[in-house]
Fold:
Amino acid sequence: MRARYRNRRDALVTTLTEMLPEAAVAGAAAGLRVTLQLPGTNNEQAIGKEAPDRGVEPETLSDYRPGPGNHRPTLLLDYGQIRETAIRDGVRELATAVDEARSRANRTGRS
Structure:
């Protein structure tokens, strides 16, 4: 079982690094989730709303923060329940959601 999760984690981290190179992956060694820290120009709430339309459901750290603040946009990604073969497609959809949320913010003048 550990090898299965390790393979999923490794596939997720590798694919995130490839498809979202501007983001930083953290927490990979601590459980069945990783955090994906995005550049400050991203709006994690907008990404969190866009992603489910693409079949991906990340949680945002703002869901757990006690209030507003100057925090780097961060997503929580669970890899414990996803097949390793589905990770690449999921990350591709997440990257598209990040791009779409960013484009929408640029069109409306909000980040």
